[in-house]
Amino acid sequence: MSEILHRLPEFIGNHLVLSVLFAGVLVALIGNEFSRLFRGYRELTPAALTQLINRESPLLVDLSAAADFEKAHIPGARNVQLSQFDPENKDLAPVKERPVAVYCRAGTTSAQAAARLVKAGFKQVFWLGGGLAAWREANLPVAKGR
Predict the structure, then answer these.
(1) What is the domain range of residue 13?
(2) Cα 129 from Cα 144, distance rounded (Å)
């Protein structure tokens, strides 16, 4: 091991571009992990969301378009369009202490909504990674209609 440490400065000197790229990627990975840890909401898998639903009865918010919601959604979810999603709404104020899980079709726009909920003071915010597509891929039940 000490042989490697003694030759490390020589390697870095001979491969400066490679070493700088490695350091940049390492810093980016560490920064990404720190931001993930401190963002205030947790990403859930479909199995973890199922456990949350069974144990704590969270408020499920589906951010899909109304037509997509009618085609398929997680049973018990409420449909709210992202353009109409307002965490400061007086109807949501009573559930600030209750768990809230958000999802959309693919899981991209719901992450933005989760961040808005945390900013508004919600304590337990969850986001379904992969969205409804991941839920369906896990062969979990979906409801149709309103």
Answers:
(1) 2-36
(2) 21
